[in-house]
Design a protein that fits this description.
Length: about 220
């Protein structure tokens, strides 16, 4: 475990309304960070959909035609939107066909578009799918990250593995039961705890999980 950086503490980002966050299930990044003109109005739902083009829901990033004499690209990438999720895949053009994909949903601060939490599903070095949760730093490491799916009665505790100046993260291997619950759920609740012991609850939509997962 790397040393915990407290330079950017979640507690320092709280306003006086911090107590109000514990009363409701939604978490507004506007009043949490206190830099918005409406910072004193809690209760707004944080933006949980990745910023993506408004045009077609599916796009392929193909390399332009190569001039004569130049080698074609060694790989191609593709990005597809599935409701709240973005699926990004990379496939090698030459040699054995190998396709690597990751799907991500993020919570962003509405006025600056800064990511304050992200959930990524990707394969690990052994090919097993894992969930990686990244949060802001300045968290209480022993508390871990609490995750509860809409269609699951259980709350999963995810231990922190890494803390850097800009983020902290934890991960867990996804079993069949978790994948089924995530596929059936339209929202998730994630709780992180500041280094001062104050919990922050985020509830945001995760529609499209089943569709994105099917294309992994």
């Amino acid at each position: 475990m790397r040393s915990l950086y407290s330079a950017v503490s979640l507690l320092s980002l709280f306003l006086a309304q911090g107590a109000a966050a514990a009363e409701g299930s939604s978490w507004s990044t506007d009043w949490l960070f206190g830099s918005s003109p409406q910072a004193n109005q809690p209760g707004q739902m944080a933006q949980a959909k990745q910023k993506a083009p408004a045009a077609p829901a599916q796009s392929s990033q193909a390399a332009p035609p190569q001039p004569a004499g130049e080698s074609p690209p060694a790989e191609k990438t593709e990005t597809i939107n599935f409701d709240n999720w973005i699926l990004s895949c990379r496939e090698f053009v030459e040699g054995p066909k190998k396709r690597n994909c990751a799907m991500t949903v993020s919570v962003r601060k509405s006025d600056t578009n800064r990511v304050v939490l992200s959930w990524t599903v990707r394969p690990n070095d052994k090919g097993q799918l894992v969930s990686v949760i990244e949060t802001l730093p300045g968290v209480a490491v022993p508390a871990g990250i609490q995750l509860k799916l809409e269609k699951s009665a259980a709350t999963r505790t995810i231990p922190y593995e890494v803390c850097e100046p800009a983020y902290c993260s934890g991960s867990f291997a996804m079993d069949k039961a978790f994948i089924q619950d995530a596929s059936a759920s339209s929202k998730v609740m994630i709780v992180v705890t500041s280094s001062a012991g104050q919990p922050v609850t985020l509830e945001f939509p995760i529609k499209g999980f089943e569709k994105a997962y099917a294309k992994m």
